[in-house]
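Sample pair:
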Amino acid sequence: MKRVYVNEEWCLGCHLCEYYCAFASTNQKDMARALKGVKIKPFIRVEEKQGITYAVSCRHCDEPLCVKGCITGALTVKDGVITVDRDGCIGCYTCILCCPYGAISPSEEGAIQKCELCIRTSGGTPQCVSGCPNQGIVFEERGE
């Protein structure tokens, strides 16, 4: 299954992936108009440690602890993609505690938010990958 991977040596720390991620969920055509004056809440975030920048997003694990820990069943796996049923999520944040990568965060709507590989908006390549100017983020299949 294709997944989002980070090439730390190529990540510029520009945060464009965060903007493309936030833009993907707006269903608008113009990023500047969609995000102007808006505090973005992307499903991916850029972090820096010891001079190395990298993006953190859901890894869509083969055995996801977040799905196992979800007490309502709001997190499910379909075709290898972990998705959130926002109506089923009660905001207990057990999944946040279970995720070893810190890739799930609270949402302002009471549910949680996480990367769903843009399946609801693009159905193809995730927007964070498309928008990365330096191929610091890629969407590919890798061997075990």
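The helical segments are 16-24, 31-35, 65-69, 94-98, 127-131.
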